[in-house]
Amino acid sequence: MGLLSKLLWLACLNIFLFRMAESAVHYYDFVLREKNFTRLCSTKSMLVVNDSFPGPVIRVHKGDTVFVNVHNEGYYGVTIHWHGVKQPRNPWSDGPEYITQCPIEPGTNFTYEVIFSTEEGTLWWHAHSNWTRSSVHGAIVIYPKEGTTTPYPKPDGEEIFILGSWYVGNINALVLEDLKTGASAPESDSYVINGQPGDFLPCSQDSTHRWVVDFGKTYLVRVINAAMNADLFFAIAKHNITVVGVDGSYVKPIVNDFIVISPGQTMNLLLTANQSLGQYYAVARQYDTDQSFFNGFDDTNATAILMYSGNYTAPDVPLFPSNIPAYTDNNAAYKFIGRLRSLASKEYPVNVPLNITTRMLITISMNYLPCPNASCAGIDGNMIASSLSNMSFVNPTTDVLLAYYRNLSGIYTPDFPNWPESFFNFTADDLPLNTTIPTQGTRVKMLDYNEEVEITFQGTAVLKIPQNHPMHMHGYSFYVVGSGFGNFNNETDPKNFNLVDPPEVNSVEVPKDGWVTIRFKANNPGVWFWHCHFERHLDWGMNTVMIVKNGGTPETSIRPPPTYMPPCRPPPSLAWPKDFDDSHEVRNEYERK
Ligand SMILES: [Cu+2]
């Protein structure tokens, strides 16, 4: 080989290697528009993205960046959240309404810059304003970086199952009414799989989602729980599944005949089509832990059909999964959840913080706010509420991120406590009345950059309404190092923490009448929402915000804001200057840099 050709060859090799490591940039347009949909024998108009329910799938490789231009052609303001995407240093594009931005108003658009980093597997996107996420959501598929592989053999095919809630009425109008009167929120009329209720619900048999498989092949099944207020059991008749990923991280393989999946959570499953040629139901049904007198639950069985390809005579009726647990089977659920472990291998190491600098205990309660003369429609004529450490969160009218970034006062207070103000026997059957009424406010937790944080979430039995709470954190994933029933014991329980291979997730189920402990390193500066992913609990105040301060260098600081953020339009009763349009102020500040 001559010198020239050698050099050329080297140059080509360099370009090839560079390409392999390069992150791609993708562009999507999301058009939000009302469209008519008919389910359960009834037609309604609802807001969806690009005319589809569920919405479009975003496909990336690990480390890519996606620009999504959201055009709002609907009737009300909306934001979108990229659930589980850490968005390093970029809270501007995280999405929760009044936390990191104000709504994208009708007739306007906003471009999100969605920055992927360590995530690999399945995540999803959804609206983060009122209950619009019931119809505005879709999957995010994250393949390994080119040139790398998954820790399991390449499957022969893939399928996405998005589990959702269906409401016959206009859900935002129904919820608004309940929030005004203080009543509990509406139950869904059925669950759906990929937008369809399935064979067991009225007027639904013709549109049941069908998935055709070839005998002998192995498939990757990406399951997303997009339901509004429900943990779900999911199973496919006769077929074992192997859980290989949760929330965009890999886990040690778990072989089982069902999964339990909490709202917000995603799971990657391997399924081998190794049963007799035929048809098999995939079923999603609620796992209900709230047996309170004023809440029923949605007992529908949403179905899809797994159907083998080929020429055969199928039985008239698909088989139903015999092992899907009953609606209230806590044992089955906790046994499954307790099996989740990180891979913790050389290729996929864990990095559990060991030198904790901030330790917190946060109680999770259902509450009420008193109404004069029992004039509300909630518990005993009061207004239903919920809280973290007895603080019921109130959304501000200017987003917390803007207030923090621009030092605006009066929007939030930096005083969310490390410990609840009072300790009581959290999980006792008969709790004193003084635990039932929370204080209201916009209290946020401030953290220094790189702090190593441990938080124990303690469920309570306040008002005799103990139940599971799927707590979700924005901007981070975290390790679940321990959990148990009853009250957390800070002397004995830490001795059993799993610091070797705890699962790495972005949401965690706090068990009914129990506790969970998580750890993370605060290395993503920004303003990050923390909330229960049951939408009704979120509305009632079961949230807080964590502000992670800058680390002192540009690389450890929040990125400058984009040139345009949707302006905040406070209600007229607030004394804001008439011409307040923050988009201009932010732009000016950005231009000064
Ligand atoms: Cu909750």
Automatic annotation (TrEMBL):
Residues 1-23 form the signal peptide. The keyword Aminoacyl-tRNA synthetase does not apply. One of its GO terms (biological process) is lignin catabolic process. Its cofactor is Cu cation. Transmembrane segments: none annotated. Residues 552-593 are annotated as: Disordered. Keywords: Apoplast, Copper, Glycoprotein, Lignin degradation, Metal-binding, Oxidoreductase, Repeat, Secreted, Signal. It comes from the Eukaryota. Its main location: secreted. Residues 33-146, 160-311, 429-550 form the Plastocyanin-like domain. GO terms for molecular function: copper ion binding; hydroquinone:oxygen oxidoreductase activity. It is found in: Secreted, Extracellular space, Apoplast. Binds 4 Cu cations per monomer. Residues 559-574 have a biased composition (Pro residues). GO terms for cellular component: apoplast. It is an enzyme of class 1 (oxidoreductase). Residues 578-593 have a biased composition (Basic and acidic residues). Belongs to the multicopper oxidase family. This is Laccase. It comes from Quercus lobata. The lineage of its organism: Eukaryota, Viridiplantae, Streptophyta, Embryophyta, Tracheophyta.
